[in-house]
Q: What sequence folds into this?
């Protein structure tokens, strides 16, 4: 660049420190804004792929409910296989931005290759399954590095507000993408939708390249690589030590399983059972974007300092699962069935957005920093396993019993599991809160005694 060299210049990608805290704060705000734009653009493009794949599979390739379930399972299988090693390896990364940049470029090339295949009409269901698996593997590695990079950009104290902003951008992009993706796929075809997703990954890469803060984490004294991989399962042990965290794992994993089954069944349910046109397919999901934004706003009010994040997480998980019953209730002509289905998809997203913020607050507060990455990776692996089981179970039940009947079974199973664990989970959450308040009172006691009267 032609900028003059100065000691007050914000830090560049290749080193240097700002001369004043204000300069560094301005650079952090700039880089976080770039990261927001890159992540929002990527989320917008990913919606087009998410909408295009089931439409191409069901409408153009004639995929069965079982094959659609296999597509969903293919997206989560890499998390199961790579989640724990990725969490352990993330602790050894010293340049997280460079890693994210490489992953964005690989994603762009992968999606563009399938888009080219669609344009030449050579794609099969196997192609789509391979794309889902590849994107799942890339997402697993990205998730393992995500918190490292966010902490690098925002600092330890700014992670909460920064993540809330990123989540709001994701929901906004999803809302706009779901409004546009259905008509775009119907008019322009699946190849154009995937091509747009490939471009969005490149935009995210450009945003990463444009950041100024140094891309270097402090080197960590640690174990050799083999020993690090052997310790990858340490994060699982965190969720087995305390009764509340065991209950929280049930609240996360079981609904994930039933939700994956319902997700695998949603496309054939909307397109075949309710006979919605492809143009309206994406619009049905548009409400989920609005609900996600609304849930994020409500979470910001509910989860202020001093609030009981554990209780909020448990109750909102329960409400999210209960609202899934609205989807199999949808029936009648498309004008009536579509709004009901939209509520059955959107309301769980509303309460799920609140639960997601609450669970993040709980885990960041409860998990020791030394095993935070591995604990998050362990949770990701457990939810991935539940997702695979749910997707396969949903596809099998849909083929055997019928799509609507399978939706009913999964919704009721998830609600029963949550309600059976809710009283015990609330009791343990209350005990933890009382213990934390007692500890805080003990710490504040000497301070009060030292104050002059």
A:
């Amino acid at each position: 660049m032609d900028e003059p060299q100065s000691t007050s210049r914000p830090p560049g990608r290749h080193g240097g420190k700002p001369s004043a805290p204000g300069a560094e704060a301005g650079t952090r705000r700039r880089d976080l804004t770039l990261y927001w734009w890159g992540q929002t653009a990527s989320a917008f493009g990913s919606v087009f792929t998410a909408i295009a794949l089931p439409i191409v599979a069901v409408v153009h390739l004639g995929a069965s409910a079982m094959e659609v379930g296999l597509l969903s399972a293919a997206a989560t299988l890499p998390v199961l296989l790579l989640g724990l090693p990725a969490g352990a390896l993330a602790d050894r990364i010293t340049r997280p931005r460079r890693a994210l940049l490489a992953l964005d470029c690989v994603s762009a090339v992968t999606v563009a290759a399938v888009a080219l295949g669609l344009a030449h009409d050579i794609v099969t269901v196997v192609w789509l399954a391979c794309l889902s698996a590849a994107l799942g593997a890339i997402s697993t590695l990205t998730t393992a590095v995500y918190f490292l990079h966010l902490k690098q950009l925002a600092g330890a104290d700014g992670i909460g507000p920064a993540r809330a902003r990123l989540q709001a951008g994701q929901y906004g992009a999803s809302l706009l993408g779901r409004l546009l993706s259905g008509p775009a796929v119907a008019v322009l075809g699946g190849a154009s939708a995937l091509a747009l997703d490939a471009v969005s990954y490149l935009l995210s890469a450009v945003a990463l390249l444009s950041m100024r803060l140094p891309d270097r984490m402090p080197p960590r004294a640690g174990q050799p690589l083999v020993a690090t991989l052997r310790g990858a399962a340490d994060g699982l042990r965190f969720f087995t030590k305390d009764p509340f965290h065991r209950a929280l794992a049930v609240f996360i994993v079981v609904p994930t399983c039933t939700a994956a089954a319902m997700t695998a069944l949603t496309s054939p349910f909307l397109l075949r059972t309710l006979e919605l046109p492809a143009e309206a397919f994406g619009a049905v999901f548009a409400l989920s974007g609005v609900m996600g934004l609304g849930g994020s706003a409500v979470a910001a009010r509910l989860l202020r300092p001093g609030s009981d994040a554990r209780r909020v997480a448990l109750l909102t998980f329960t409400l999210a699962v209960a609202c899934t019953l609205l989807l199999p209730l949808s029936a009648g002509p498309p004008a009536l069935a579509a709004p009901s289905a939209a509520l059955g998809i959107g309301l769980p997203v509303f309460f799920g957005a609140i639960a997601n913020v609450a669970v993040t607050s709980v885990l960041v507060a409860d998990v020791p920093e030394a095993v935070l990455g591995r604990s998050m990776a362990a949770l990701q692996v457990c939810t991935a396993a539940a997702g695979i089981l749910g997707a396969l179970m949903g596809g099998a039940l849909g083929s055997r019993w019928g799509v609507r009947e399978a939706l009913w079974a999964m919704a009721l199973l998830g609600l029963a599991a949550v309600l059976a664990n809710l009283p015990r989970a609330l009791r343990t959450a209350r005990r933890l809160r009382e213990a934390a308040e007692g500890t805080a009172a003990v710490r504040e006691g000497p301070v009060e005694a030292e104050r002059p009267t």
